[in-house]
Description:
heterodimer, A: about 290 residues, mainly alpha, MetI-like fold, 11 helices, about 0% strand, B: about 270 residues, 10 helices
Amino acid sequence: MRKIVKTLAPRIGTLAATALAGGLLTAFLVRVSPGFDVDERQLDPRLSEASRHALQQEHAVNRNVLGFYTHRLERIVLHGDLGTSSSLNRPISQLFRERLPVTAQIMAIGIAGGWTLAFALALPAVMCRSRVVRGMAGLFHQALLCLPAAALALIVFDLGGPVRALVALVICPRVFEYVRNLLAEAYAQPHILTARAKGLAGARIFARHVLPSVAPQLLALAGVSVSIAFGAAIPVEALCDLPGIGQLAWRAAIARDLPLLVAITFLVIVVTQVCNAASDWAGFRRRQA
Amino acid sequence: MKKPQLLAILVLAALLAAGVAAGLWHADSHARQFRELPSARPSSTFPLGTDDLGRDRLARLLYATRLSLLLAPAAALIATLLAALAGGTAGYFGGWWDNCIVRAIDLMLSLPWLFLLLAARALLPLNAPPVASLVMTYGLLAVLGWAGPARVIRAGTRHLRESDFALQASAEGCSELRIFSRHLIPNLKPVLLAQLWTTIPVFILAEANLGLLGLSASEPFPTWGNLLRELQNPFSIRPVTLAPLAVVMISVACFKLATPPQEQHS
Lengths: 289, 266
C-alpha cells in the first residue's frame, strides 16, 4: 500500500500542478488578448447608462487574472461551482452535464473503432508475407494521415455517413504504425517462432503469447489516444453540428467566453492527464506481473 | 538520397514553382471576380471552374499552394529554432531549467493540439486585415508548435552530452559554451532537420483544420484551409472542389516521404 501511495503521490501532484498551470495560462492569454474588454452588448442603443456601467463592472471583475483565477478555484473547490458561461448565459456545470455524454460517446466509439481498425490492418501486415497486403495497409494508413480531420468530417457528413464514428478514422492511422511495429517485434521473438513452428493456432499464439508481451506499451498508447480523440472530436462536433464539449470549446473560443474556456481547459487537462497516468500505471502493473 | 525522397522533393518543388509562376503571371488573379460566371463548370478558360463568387478556382489554388508551401516551412523553422533553444539548453544544462522546460512541454502536450490552436487563435482578432490574419495564423503555429520537437531535441542533447567526445572536450578544459556551440549543435543537425521536416506537414494539416473552422486567414486570401470550406456546401462536392484536398494530401505525403530518418535517443 505504501509503495502504491509513494508511486501515485508525485503523479497526482504533477497532475494537479499541470491542471492549475494550464488554467492560469488560459486565463492569462484570454486577459491579454485584444478586444478582451469589448462587449458587443454595450453597443446596444436600447441600454441605459446604468446598464452599460453594470456590464463594464462585470468585465472589471475579470481584469485581474490572478484574482479571477483564485476566486474561480475557490468556488470550484469549496462549492463545486464552475461558474456561468458569459456567452451562453448558463451554468457551466449544466452545459458540461448536457454535452459530456455526447463527447464521451463519440470518443468511446472513436477509440474502440480506431484500435480495432488498427489491429485489423496491422495483423495482416505483420503476419502476411504478401507485399500487396503490406502495401495496401501502409497506403490506407498514410492516406488517412494526410487528410485533415475537419475535411474528413465534412465529406462524411455531406455524404450522410456515420459522423459519430469519424474519430476512429483519425485514431486508426496514429495507432496503426505503433501497433504494427510492436507486433512485428513480438512475432520475431524466439518463443513465438517456436510456437508457430510447432503448429499452434494463430489465435492462441496471439492471445496467449503476443498480446501479453505487447500489453504494457499498448496500454501506454491508450492514454495518448484519449487526447487524440478529443482533438479530433472538435472539428467533428463543430462541423457536423453535434452538441458535445468539442463544439462548446469552439463556440467558447470564438465568443471569448473566459469562464467557459478556463473550465474546458481544466477539464481537458485533467481528463488527458488522468488517462495518461492510468494507462502508465496499468502498463507498470502489467510489466511487474 | 533515396529515390522516393528525391521524387517527393521534386513534386514539392514543382508545386511551389507552379504557385510562384502563377503569382508572377497574374498577381491579383486569385481575387478577381468574373461576376457573370459564378459557379462555372470547368472549361479551357477556367480549368477548375469558378466558385460561387465567380473567382477562378485554379488561380486561387495555385496562390494558396504558394502561401502554404512558403509559410508552413517558415513557421516550422521558427518552431524548430524555439524547440532547439528550449530543448537544447534544457538537455545540456539540466537542473531546475530542465525541470521547468519538461513541465512546460508536459503542459503543452497535455492539451490536444487542435484545442490549443483553436483557443489561442480565437484570442486574436478574428476580423483582422487579411495579411495580419495570415501572419497571426502561421505565427501561432510557430509559437505553439515547439513542444513536440523540444522533447526530441532535449533527449538528443542529453545523449550527446554524455557521449565520449563531449566528455573528452570537457576534460581538456573546453568551456561549456564552446562544447555546446562547436560540438553539440553540429551533431544535433540531423535531429533538428528531421524535426523541421516532421513539423511542416503537421502545420499544413493544422492550417487546413483551422481554415475549415473559420479561424485561418481571412478573405480574399486563399489558403488551403479556406479553399476547403467549399466542401461545407453538400451540393458542391465535385471532383473540382476536391482538388485543394488532393493538393493538401499530395503535399503532406511528399513532406512525410522527404523526412530524413531519425536516430532514436532514449
